[in-house]
Batch of 2 targets.
Target 1
Amino acid sequence: MKIAFKLAFRNLIGAGLRTWLNVIVLSFSFVVIIWAKGILVGWDHQAKNDMEQWEIGNGQFWHNQYDPYDAFTISDSHAPIPNEFKPEIEKGEMVPMLFAQGTIYPKGRMQPAMIKGIPASQILLKIPTHKLDTVTDAIPAIIGEVMARSSHLEKGSRVVLRWRDSKGTFDATEIEIVDIFSTTVPTIDVAQVWINLETMQEKLLLPEQATLFSFANVEENRPAVGDFKLKTKKELTAEIDAMIKTKSKGQSVFYFILLLLAMLAIFDTQILSIFRRQKEIGTYVALGYTRQQVVTLFTVEGAMHAVLAAALAAVYGIPFFIWQARVGFTVPMDTSEFGMAIAPTMYPIYSVGLILSTTLIVLLTTSVVSYWPARRIAKMNPTEALRGKIQ
Amino acid sequence: MENSAIIQINQLIKRFPMGKGEFTALKGINLNFGTGEFAGLIGPSGSGKTTLLNIIGSLDMPTEGEAVVLGKPISKLSAKESAKLRKESLGFIFQSYNLLQVHTVFENVEFPLLLLDYTTSERKKMVMDALEWVGLTDKVKSKPPQLSGGECQRVAIARAMVKKPSLVLADEPTANLDAANSHNILQTMQNLNRELKTTFIFATHDEKVIGYLKRKIFLKDGLVDHEEWINQ
């Protein structure tokens, strides 16, 4: 086997341009696959990180009735803040939020919105709630950029907000947009209006009540408290995982095509080699190689394309990966309305596992497509191969 | 025969399929070769000389009869045993040199040693010795496309001789060479035959080669027509 490697290396280097063309194509596959996978990992990481910082902290407690996908549950999803949570809230390690459905009327148009009450003093989440302390004769409210665009509201805009209190009575008042924040997390932006929790509790006639709590505590398996059940970070980010998984499957098709092109080049080279190098094959046999050893030599030779490609990919791929990790990849379109946490610029993350697994897959695939045509050698008659007579 | 027999051929028949029928290339050959012979199978194209050489070299199998080479019955050898015989005891020289084109002269000559368990330093010494025999020590780094036909054939001789095999089989070794180069390589082989007592068997119809042979075996239509021994 050692000899096969030695000879294969000599043969490949000796073949010159033919080898390097294959190696360049294959190295390109390496770099693109690792980069694209790195982008997905980076996206996953960024999306979860942003969700954690902007919305969920290290987990949430939800009211038993609360189902974000069922609008009819919202009006009943509230309960008094349990005493057990109060020490954490006072320390700023837990943020209570109260939700209600409402309607805004920007420029006379009716637009449904989820009204969310959050303490202005909270610092656990990155939502700039301190702006809710702005002194104005209307209710100060903050919204995200996507909401601002869809409702044509801007900083300083005033708009009528209507809601139904806990008794079922409709009420309305004017809110003033005191700040517009930029976030990659759509669930706190799209169709959301944020106001001070106390104002919200007062308007809904639900003093000291909340729909859910985000908390900083990293402890897992916290028990349910009163009407509130635990939602772990893993559960809350499961949708992102599912989305990444779907994206990953889509990307696999792309990898497959890319690998197919590279493998086609290697397969072609191998087929060509076996016909063009008949005399050489016969010579190997005459000098003492068994046919199986010649098959091994040709397989190793083909598979070694992947080794050289990995080396070449390292030469230009590593600087490219480092540069990409630093400047990121800017998605060439507006991603704010994709409905998922996707930053305009994504920073790829590469792991040793990712690089090793990609290398292994490419190496195995190359070995298989190299072995396939090489099997024909085993059927060759060495005396005819020596004279290059096989058609 | 100069010495004890290293090749014994008994009633050797070789048939090849041809269309719906068969072509009989060897029709019952009986021959013995001894150690240190410088012999040639002589005959026109189709007389069966290359077929016989291939069977002696365990590259082909007899259809009937037997060829015992260095004590090994060719028809009974497995692929692995045949390869072992070629690797350890046989050297081949071909009409079109059959050098590995992308390898240097050194690497070409080193190849048979790679298959045997020699150390790097042993291999280096043996390759340089072999290249010295053929007068090519100044071409170690050249590749076959950079060499003349005569030089290529001398590399092939060095490759065949580097492991000091018991038997060298040369199939039309001068067919692609001019007269000067032909004499040059024949003298080289003659010297190696004398110095190392290696048995050389040629398949040829080249008069230049025939002039150097000590034993001439004339084949005709797959049979030994007659033999001539030259006493020197």
Note: The longest strand of chain B covers residues 5-18.
Target 2
Amino acid sequence: MSRRVTLDLGFAGNTRDVTVVIPDDEPTPWQWGERLSVVGKPAPRVDGPLKATGAARYTYDIELPGMLYGAILRSPWPHARIRNIDLSAAEHLDGVRAVLALEDREIRFAGQEVAAVAAVSSDLAADALKLIKVDYETMPFVVDMDAAMADSAPRVFGSGSNVGRTSTSSVGNVARGLEVAANTIEAAYTTAVQTHVCLETHGAVASFNAAGDQLTVWCSTQGIFSVRDDLAVYFSLPPNNVRVVCEFLGGGFGSKFGATPEMIVAARLARAAGVPVKVMLPRGDEHRSTGNRPNSEQKVRLGVDRDGKLTAIEVVARGSGGINGGAGSADPFKSVYRCANIRTEERNIYTNAGPASPMRAPGWPQGCFALELAMDEMARKAGIDRLEFRRRNSDNPVRAAEYEIGARAFGWAEKNSAPKSDGAVKRGVGVASAEWHAVGVSGPEAQAIAHRDGSVEVRVGTQDIGTGTRTILAIVAAEELGLPVDRVKSEIGDTRFLFSVPSGGSLSAPSNTPAVRQAAAHLKDKLFRIAAPILSAEPGDLEASDGFIRVRTNPSRSLAFADVCKRIPGDSISAQGERVPNYEGFRTDQAGCQFAEVEVDTETGIVRVTHVVAVHDAGRIIDPLMARSQVNGGILMGIGFALFEDRRMDPQLGIMVNPTMDDYKLPGSLDVPRIDVTFFEVANGITNTGVMGLGEVAHVASAAAVACAVYDAIGAPVRSLPMTPDRVLAALGHA
Amino acid sequence: MPRLSARFCALLRTKTAYYRTPDGERIFKPDSSTACYTCLKTQRPVGPDGRPVDAQSCGTDRGCFEQE
């Protein structure tokens, strides 16, 4: 059965009524402007004390009786065939319990898994790896993207070309758009390979039961059910015979979706040894082998008419995901700005380097950097204020409003017209536009439980990638049940709970919160049925607020929530909820913009970001404190991409030369600028909570805004990321 | 009626395919230029036959194809 509900969607000055059909048992979606008691109020992380005191158990912290320590031998060669592996010496080392040769006979990047051991200590496991004799037949290799495109280049995949298939898109006629343009620009932009640098490296602890038909894995993952299903297939087990646990997760950024190699190695070693095995990757392996954001070279052409309206957008892009694909970067060119003539062309180039994997808004930071810096170059050539140029070419009303909010908060008018300084340190400002799509998916289910002591639990088979999932689920349930947040405990990170989807693509909050709210609503209905006869009312006449269950028309007739729970006939009562498919909403995309201010030392080439203003819409914000934290992280990751991070490969040896936290440069605490975040309230509908994700959109424009600010400061565009001092000085030489 | 995702190898993995449509289909986006793929069997973006894996090429014409 279903019912019709009319929702007031949009934002101040731009609203419309939308009537949606929702299941009968779906809570009525929170309306725009509806007064909520705990949703939308800043609340600290419910698991903050556990993290701050070190009590939170990450995979690394898991210790099981009799557990062994696994280690993986990796190829030092970027391209080779394995003629033979001699494991015997390792097998005979005291304390070694299992040794495996991994199946691949052809190595395609330095760092690929070759063999693995399990021993009674990690030191012994490392010693055992040194005893494994591998007879490699080395082969020609290529790690440079340009070199890989040559006809004579060594082939990464047998006789197949290193140049992957070309993805193209086209609307209108770009040649004509450039022909009629009053101004055109053409420039090439490059970005470097960025690794995920999860603070908790990839790893797992695996344990089979004695019969070998039940597998339990504790692992660092963005998707406990994805890992469960992958392991079930790999080991030919029913999914319900595999349990996956991830209580806490030290970052993933897209690199920890399914069963990754070290999880399977841990499980294979555990099966072979007959005891649990832990495999946690060392930092070097994390950099080399677990994924990265591909590099890019983007040749951009823009045309504008005399009114500053874009007449043509073209990008011809290539990038290398190492032995993987996925190096596209053209998506921002297709949708951020309005233009009748857009053409994109993208190619992935295979090289003998570690494989790409999804990384926070795949393709977008690269594409936004090239697009936005090109927009600034065009604005300068056409003599238009850069913000005004963007206003004229964006038809997104949400972004238009956000430009104004951001410009005021940042002081764009004053800062943009201020002198750059007469000294060596020049000041500049930039702005860039964001976009993402994060409305969530159906699939997750949730359980809400009320106990006789008045406490409430919500259980969901999701995981917290670090964004505060436990906290926002507790807030949503507390809101529905009329309780303070600390009365609700969120239990997540175990496939014994009901199913949820992986945490990625900004999908966690919009996918899980509606299921939790529905479960809490169903639980509330059950509690109302207990309370109604005592209050001499019908269940439908009751409401829950401030820790009480009341008669709506006569609030003085009430029972404390805890007193109602005391009348639970057993120990607890529970209810389930599901995430129903999306209903119609206001928009399915998110806009957003970020403003950056930098100081550039023109004598040293060092860039310092001093201030960032971020304006984002993410539907209903459940917890502004968590949301701001997520935006802060997106910006800092963008600053790393803009100024520091660069996976460097030795073209002669085919190896990564900076696989440490020392040599792979990251932003440190002194690189953190002042950050001001404003959430622009948009009633988006789509689910009963109206929540949208925030992880990606908070990141896509950050590096671009910094690059535009550097251009403003020094008067010359730095067209390659990271904007290292040598590149800044080189650009100054051409200013 | 054959399931839509059955045209892709059961061992093909990519981020979107860990999500499903309301009809229970794994979500593949063969035209995406940013999708990264792996083979569950090899754990790498290369199939047991030594060729790269992706949604456009991991079909029934490959000897290593496994039906979902």
Note: Chain B has one domain: 1-58.
